[in-house]
Amino acid sequence: MDLARLKKVKPDDELYELARKQFEKANAIQAGTASYNLACIYGLRGNKDACLKALESARDKVTLPEAEDILNDPDLASVKEQDWFVEFMETLNKKTETEPENKATVVDPQLLNG
């Protein structure tokens, strides 16, 4: 995918297609690991359904970048203003607002020794 960017090829170029196939193989090995990269390719290609599905997979497998990084990703520039993308980003914001903070519990070592 980086080579495709460097060469400034069109989204339907063979380099992006090779990257897509490799990302799908990576996801087959470990679900979600390359879902965000797939979303970027689908976003570049204007494939709404596949882009959203890949974003949801990355979210569900906790491999999604921070919201600010997603919004600033040039690969997703063509979809950022679309209603489905805005709704997806809003669900991320709602999720982080409702999640409790992860606080470590301090356990007294003497309690562990009985």
Describe the structure.
The protein is an all-alpha fold and 114 residues long. The chain is 62% helix and 0% strand. It is built from 7 helices and no strands. 21% of the residues are buried. About 8% of the residues have low confidence.
Uncertain spans, ≥5 residues at pLDDT below 50?
A: 101-109
User: What is the radius of gyration computed over CA atoms, rounded to a whole number of angstroms?
Assistant: 18 Å
Coarse structural class: mainly alpha
What global shape is seen? globular
Give the percentage of residues in beta strands.
under 5%
Q: Report the order of strands and helices.
A: HHHHHHH
Distance between the termini: 56 Å
Supply the number of helical segments. 7
Task: Find the count of extended strands (DSSP E, 2+ residues).
Answer: 0
Short description:
By secondary structure, the protein is an all-alpha fold. Helix content is 62%, strand content 0%.
Give me some keywords for this one.
single chain; mainly alpha; globular; 0% strand; 114 residues; 7 helices
Topology:
Layout: H1 2-7, H2 14-29, H3 35-45, H4 48-60, H5 67-71, H6 83-98, H7 109-112
Helix pairs in contact: 2-3, 3-4, 4-6
